[in-house]
Amino acid sequence: MKLSPLVADIGLIARVAQDSGADALTIANTYPAMAIDVRSLKSRLGNLTGGLSGPAIRPITLRLVWEAKKAVSIPIVA
User: What is the end-to-end Cα distance of the chain in Å, rounded?
Assistant: First the structure.
């Protein structure tokens, strides 16, 4: 089951997913974000906002995985 990173208690959500029959969890995908070109003051994305991914989200996602792992015994993919 894929879990959103935008929750107050990822451990609780992970435990509910496991108790509901999930075989494994995926935590996080992208985070809502915005990128502005400082010279033109226009969005650097196709839309005004978009999803942030890559190395910038690793510390945030690592914390979520750590918190979820304390709550469940099923595999977690991040």
Answer: 12
Q: How many angstroms separate the CA atoms of 40 and 53, rounded?
A: 23
Using one digit for the tens of pLDDT, what is the confidence trace for 4-41?
A: 999 999 999 999 999 999 999 999 888 999 989 999 99
62 pLDDT tier (thresholds 50, 70, 90): very high
The residues spanned by each domain of the chain are 2-77
SS3 content of the chain, % helix, strand, coil (to 5): 35, 20, 45
Angle at the Cα of 64 from the Cα atoms of 10 and 23, rounded to 5 degrees: 65
Please, are residues 27 and 7 in contact by the beta-carbon 8 Å criterion?
Answer: no
User: Is the Cα dihedral 66, 54, 75, 21 positive or negative?
Assistant: positive
